[in-house]
Structure formats: C-alpha cells, structure tokens
Specification:
The complex is a heterodimer of chains A (about 100) and B (about 425). Chain A is α+β, with helices and mostly antiparallel strands and about 100 residues long. Chain A is about 20% helix and about 15% strand. The two termini of chain A are about 25 Å apart. With about 425 residues, chain B is of the alpha+beta class. Chain B has eleven helices and 19 strands. The chains are: A alpha+beta (about 100), B alpha+beta (about 425). The interface of A and B includes residues 42, 67, 68 and 70 of A. Chain B: This is Aromatic ring-hydroxylating dioxygenase subunit alpha. Chain B: InterPro entries: Cholesterol_7-desaturase, LigXa_C, Rieske_2Fe-2S, Rieske_2Fe-2S_sf.
C-alpha cells in the first residue's frame, strides 16, 4: 500500500493482511501517523484521507471513530478514517492513503 | 483531544450560545429549598447560565426568580425590602411581584398606569423535593417537571447539598461519568468513608485498576458501563446513567444510600455541584444523615452560612501530605467531593482540551461530548427538542452488579437501571 505524506512524498509499504493501516505505517517508519493510544480508537492521531477509489472498499468509520473524527481532527473529509480502524485485506491491495499535515 | 471550536461550543452557556440555549430547554436546579425557608425570606442572589437573578418568596409563600436589577436605573434588588406580596427596590421604592411584574412606582401619580408596562425578566421557580428548579427557556416549550427519583422519594429517604465549584461545568460533569479515577483518587474513601466503606464491590474496585468501558445510548443520555474483573467467569459492572444535560448518578455500594450530582453552570468559569443521596426503599438512618451533613460521601463541609467548601483553592484544599503518605487519602485532600473538586479546579477555569490525551477509559466522555454537541446543533439548526427534556427520561438509576462474563451489561440490567418506586437499588 502507499502512504502520501503531507509534503507529497510517497511511501510504498508491504503491509501484511490482518495488520491495520496504522500498524503498517508505524512498523515501516512512515512519518505523520502518531498513533498515541496504540490503536485503541481513542486519540485520533492516526487520521488519514483514503483515496477516492478505495473509499467504498474501506467503508465508513465505526461509531466511536465517527465521534473522534467529528470532534478531534483538523480537516475532516468524506474519506477521513482513523488508520488504526482499517484492517488490511486482499481487496485493499494497492490502497493509497494521504496523511494530513497535522495530527491532533 | 477536542477541537478548540467544539470546546468553546460545549463550555459556553450564556444567553444566545448554542449550549446556553440547550440548557434553557430543561428544568435545572436554581437553589436549595432551605435557602428560601419561609414567606418573606430574605432574597437570594442566583446566577445561572451567566444571568444574574434574584430568588424570593412573597408574603403568600410563592416563589419568584426575577432579574436582579431594578428596571428603573439598574440598582440591585438584593438590597430591597421583601414585604406586602412583593419585592420593593430600596432606591426609589419600585415594587415587583413574583412574576417580575412591576406593581408600584411611588413617584408616579396615583392613577398612572406606568407600572403596568414594566416587567422584569422572570422565570418559574418550583419546588420538587429539596430543590427549587427553574426553566429559563421559551415559556411555550416548558416541559413537565423533573421526575428524578431523588426528588420524589419521601423526605426522610433523601438529602441534597450543594457546593460552589470554581471551574467550568463541563470538566466537573466529566468527572461524574469517569469511573476509572475512583480506584486511585477515592481509594481512601472506599476504605474509610462511612457512606462508601464495607461493600463487596469496593474490593473489585480496588483490585482491578484497568476497567473496560462500554457506553450505551439511553433515551435521555447515556449509560456508561465500567467493567472490572470479579470472581472467575464473572465481571463487576458499575453503571453510571447520564441524563442530559447535567444529571449523573454514582453506582451504589452495598446498602449505602445511592448518590449522584447535578452540574449547573453559574457562568463559564463557575458551576454549582448539587450532590444528593437517597435510599429508594428506606429512611436514611440518623448516622447516615449526620455523615452527609458533616460532609462525608459526595457531600462537602461548607463554610457556615455559605455554599463554599471549607477546603478550597485559596487554602490548597487543606492538603495533608502526611495523610497522603500514610495512605489515609490518596491525594492528601480529605473527602470524596473535594478530592474531585480540587483536581477539576486545578485544570483551570476552562481546561484547554486541545492539549489533552484521551485513552479508551475516556470513552464515556467522548460519547457525552458528541451527544451534547449534536443536540446543541440540532436545536440551533432545526429546533429539535433534545434528549432528557421529557420527564420520563429522568426515571433512571445507577447500578452495581456482578454478571457472568458472556452477558451484556445493559440487556441484563434494564430493570436495575430503571427507577421503579418501592424497588431497592441493584448493588454489590
């Protein structure tokens, strides 16, 4: 999968099926995903914008994630998700996400 | 964290603010009944939602809550004379009844109708239980009176106190739905407080410092469930109801009276904490009532003649480092109420939530903020009546139960979290 940093730099990463988009970034040293709470869906510091073509496959945020996106992130878009709540599947091969310039 | 714009939305409750309008949909505590004990009692200054008012009882014993200031030239009516079925300004003798209607302007000619056109802003003030409640919103939308159980059980079964808290209402309220601090901050109270100690549940509380939180919607707000390990195969659940906007209950302990709070904004940097204790099916014992008066449990020892706690920010809450070291109290501050208030006030008048770091144990707080925000916006944009306005939503209770691990806390506890007259609380 591919992470696009806020300065436009792309990070291509081999992510394992079953990992989360957050964990794959942290394991591969992708900057900009802070993940303060360690994947517990409570801090909103792993916010990403999912690319348009993958957004329908990734699906909508869950209930608690929805609250955090509403109240914590600086620029919520229709494709906003918390990376810790997206689990990698085969269908997400080639997934591209954009990392916002700031995490809460 | 919380975005700054949302922090402002949730913490500002003055006239015309979205959150202020939300609070003005509900009956809220204005003062204790003991503050106006008899007809023609001295008037009491009341500031709520950043509005300055005066509460009084006229010669017939009727309650009134009116603008504090005379319509003439703005002198405070607190200096006035409460006499002859009205409150008379001490400056030039203008007189008002409990509805705020001006009934006499002595300088005018006897046959003048001048005073008929003068009316102070006034709100209804109604006694339910030991509390005088007011509704500061649109009279056309005035809901039915509060039906919270603490205000409806017989007087010998209930006790309510209040204390001034020097911080924004939201950070005080958030402490009321945060079970995970109990194991730390109140560990001394679980051992020693006469209104807390001795319950089996306290042992689970102390053993498991990592509660797991599950939050469920209710008609009027939320049920926040905090799960701790109990015996093999079972969990100890503490269930805290929140009825919007600011009513919370603490899960009970053994057969102790059940307690809770109402967190009422005075202005954006101060709030009233109303603390109540009641037993659903029996009178409070003399010892229990005395303990409450003495400031144990959720109550505070106040400076006589005031509702300011004797331990307050000006004396560092009478911090006792030796007691902290010995473990009599965890923080060195005595009393459960002031342990909470000291830390909530220590955050500053309005905590900067853009700098906080939330963890999964804060999920109740995240849910409550979102619910408040959505309700305030739905009211502002579409006029939607928020949850908790309907008095039927008030009939909830806290509960403390041990359940098999496989059971959902809410499915198993529907009755336990419903206030049913004559039925005791569900408590461990």
């Amino acid at each position: 999968m591919i992470y696009i940093g806020s300065a436009g730099r792309e990070y291509a990463v081999d992510a394992a099926v079953g990992d989360t988009v957050m964990a794959a970034a942290v394991k591969n040293g992708v900057p900009g995903i802070v993940a303060e709470c360690g994947g517990n869906c409570s801090c909103a510091t792993c916010h990403v914008w999912v690319s348009e073509e993958f957004a329908p496959i990734v699906g909508p945020p869950n209930d608690m994630e929805e609250d955090l996106l509403d109240m914590a992130v600086s620029e919520r878009r229709s494709t906003s998700r918390l990376a810790c709540q997206i689990r990698i599947t085969k269908a997400l091969d080639g997934l591209t996400v954009e990392i916002p310039p700031e995490q809460p | 964290m919380l975005r700054q714009d949302i922090n402002e939305l949730l913490t500002q409750t003055g006239p015309g603010t979205p959150m202020g309008d939300l609070f003005r949909q509900y009956w809220i505590p204005a003062l204790l009944a003991e503050e106006l004990p008899e007809k023609d009692s001295p008037p009491v200054r009341v500031k709520l939602l950043s509005e300055r008012m005066l509460a009084f009882r006229d010669s017939e014993g009727r309650y009134g809550l009116v603008d504090e200031f005379c319509a003439h030239r703005g002198a405070s009516l607190w200096f006035g004379r409460n006499e002859g079925s009205g409150l008379r300004c001490a400056y030039h003798g203008w007189k008002y009844d409990v509805t705020g209607q001006c009934v006499e302007v002595p300088s005018e000619a006897d046959n003048s109708s001048f005073c008929q056109n003068v009316k102070l802003t006034a709100y209804p003030l109604v006694r339910v239980g030991d509390v005088l409640w007011t509704y500061m919103g649109d009279p056309a939308k005035q809901p039915g009176l509060p039906e919270f159980e603490f205000a409806h059980v017989p007087p010998e079964q209930t006790y309510t106190s209040k204390r001034w808290q020097q911080c924004n209402w939201l950070q005080a309220f958030e402490g009321g739905i945060d079970s995970s601090h109990v194991t730390f901050l109140h560990s001394g109270g679980l051992k020693n407080d006469p209104l807390f100690k001795g319950a089996k549940g306290n042992e689970y509380n102390m053993k498991d410092t990592k509660p797991f939180f599950e939050v469920a919607d209710s008609e009027g707000g939320l049920f926040v469930g905090a799960r701790r390990n109990a015996e093999e195969g079972s969990y100890y659940w503490r269930i805290t109801p929140w009825v919007m906007p600011a009513f919370t209950m603490v899960p009970p302990r053994g057969d102790h009276p059940v307690h809770g709070h109402f967190w009422v904004p005075i202005d954006d940097e101060n709030c009233w904490t109303y603390s109540f204790d009641y037993h659903p099916v029996r009178p409070l014992t003399t010892a229990e009532r005395q303990a409450m008066i003495d400031g144990h449990g959720v109550h505070s020892k106040n400076i006589p003649g005031t509702y300011r706690p004797a331990a307050n920010m000006d004396n560092d809450y009478l911090m006792d480092r030796e007691a902290q070291k010995r473990g009599d109290t965890y923080s060195g501050v005595a009393g459960i109420a002031m342990q909470d208030a000291s830390l909530q006030e220590s955050m500053g008048p309005i905590v900067d939530r853009t700098k906080e770091r939330l963890v999964p144990a804060d999920s109740g707080i995240i849910k409550a903020r979102q619910k408040l925000r959505k309700a305030a916006i739905a009211l502002r944009d579409e006029g939607v009546t928020p949850p908790g306005v309907n008095p039927a939503h008030h009939r909830v209770r806290s509960a403390a139960v041990v359940l098999p691990q496989a059971e959902s806390f809410l499915d198993s506890c529907r009755d336990a979290v419903t206030a049913i007259p004559g039925v005791p609380q569900s408590s461990v």
